[in-house]
């Protein structure tokens, strides 16, 4: 399994990926899922991948040479000459479809689904930063102001904190912290997501990666997050009042509000309905 | 979809269920997923169900009259004369298999999977409280000291808080609070889980339900949890240091620890590897 996050904020982009790959529980390996394509001063692009490793590796390989037709008399479009991130996403979609043409029928014959998904983000020249989610059919969607992040892989455990904290105005360092908390929750609940992590921060308009760091279990900041977050969460939890059942002198009695709906079905011996 | 939780603590049992049922996004209904079977002073049993509603409703109906063979010369075992919760789980498994015999072939013909799962907990006479997770094949597992809760349905969003907080020694009211926080995270992240909620608390050896409450959006306690939890979570998040990149004078520099692994692959224009 995999967990990858891509964030698009006003201040820049943040990418985080784990490195666990497994084929069953007894075949666990470490594969990096982040790759950066960069021509400093001209373009910065980062790709995160999830799904079948043979597919995503092939896509990454092909992406470097993939070309799609341009207007008449113009050079075909590659990731290195594309004028917009939208075109780069189209080139990526085309690479995915090429791998599908090559491997899809044999995979199908073997009963294996063609499963792969990608987060692609970056900036080219004077264009604004953009972030895409590319599906296994090669189609894609783009992040907007309302939905400023994408997740691929094992995304559910780590989604609540992103939902609660992130907005487009979140500063970059805080966003990196948020991504790491989200990853920490996922690591705790799912064995098939594992260290080391790759974290990349891109500052708007810099046209090259700003911070790139590989995080393993000895990283002091991630260790601090891992220990502090769980502890503080328990403190907050303990700080919230327990329910009060009778509604006597409490501010938030739990029994209030129960009159609106019928209580659930309660069945007594011999099938008579008690309530 | 559905989200249900069953907890087995030293002090008692806690059950919580939502009530959203959907068949596609345009057919959303409210169905209660908790049912209590009770003979005060003799036995208390609570059943939560997830999966295909036609299956779980049929199982609930059949369960009231289902019997499995007992030893020679003894009366067949029903949920009302079973001497142990283990036998009740067997009766439930038998009811699930009966529905499979009745509906399974037609469902298969229609391309519909036979999907249903159940949390069953309770206490009979002098036996200890027990909690089971029953699968759609009628087989089941039991909660232990190490794994003291079961979830069915949309379980991932709400699992981190259970993992971090619950132990067998958690007091009942605190456990109810924990279940509600877990439900709140799930409600926030998944539209297919919805109010009202059914919450039931059973105190050990009481042989009847202790607290039963139906919680809708006007319930003051759940409203308080909903507002407070998100707010405090953000406060905790803000209270954790942002990463420091250069490792200068900080306690938890993020860049430290990055020497152990190669940085991820970085590809420059024309395919040369930059790093």
UniProtKB/TrEMBL annotation, chains A, B:
The keyword Transferase does not apply. InterPro entries: Ntn_hydrolases_N, UCP009120_prtse. One of its GO terms (molecular function) is peptidase activity. Keywords: Hydrolase, Protease, Proteasome. Gene3D superfamilies: Glutamine Phosphoribosylpyrophosphate, subunit 1, domain 1 (3.60.20.10). The keyword Cell inner membrane does not apply. It comes from the Bacteria. One of its GO terms (cellular component) is proteasome complex. Signal peptide: none annotated. GO terms for biological process: proteolysis. This is Proteasome-type protease. The lineage of its organism: Bacteria, Pseudomonadati, Pseudomonadota, Betaproteobacteria, Burkholderiales.
């Amino acid at each position: 399994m995999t967990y990858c996050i891509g964030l698009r904020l006003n201040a820049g982009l943040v990418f985080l990926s784990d490195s666990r790959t497994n084929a069953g529980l007894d075949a666990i390996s470490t594969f990096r899922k982040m790759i950066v394509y960069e021509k400093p001063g001209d373009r910065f692009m980062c790709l995160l991948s999830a799904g079948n490793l043979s597919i995503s590796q092939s896509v990454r390989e092909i992406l470097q040479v993939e070309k799609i037709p341009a207007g008449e008399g113009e050079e075909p479009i590659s990731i290195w000459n594309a004028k917009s991130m939208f075109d780069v996403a189209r080139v990526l979609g085309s690479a995915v479809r090429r791998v599908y043409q090559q491997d899809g029928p044999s995979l199908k014959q073997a009963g294996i689904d063609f499963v792969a998904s990608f987060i692609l983000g970056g900036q080219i020249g004077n264009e604004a930063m953009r972030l895409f989610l590319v599906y296994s059919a090669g189609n894609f969607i783009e992040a907007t102001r309302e939905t400023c992040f994408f997740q691929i892989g094992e995304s559910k455990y780590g989604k609540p904190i992103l939902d609660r904290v992130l907005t487009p105005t979140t500063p970059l360092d805080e966003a990196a912290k948020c991504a790491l908390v989200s990853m920490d929750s996922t690591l705790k609940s799912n064995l098939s997501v594992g260290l080391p992590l790759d974290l990349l921060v891109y500052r708007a308009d810099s046209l090259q990666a700003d911070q790139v760091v590989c995080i393993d279990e000895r990283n002091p900041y991630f260790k601090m997050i891992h220990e502090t977050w769980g502890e503080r969460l328990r403190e907050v939890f303990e700080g919230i009042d327990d329910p009060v059942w009778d509604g006597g002198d409490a501010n938030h009695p739990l029994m209030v509000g129960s009159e609106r709906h019928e209580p659930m079905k309660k069945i007594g011996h011999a099938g008579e309905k008690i309530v």
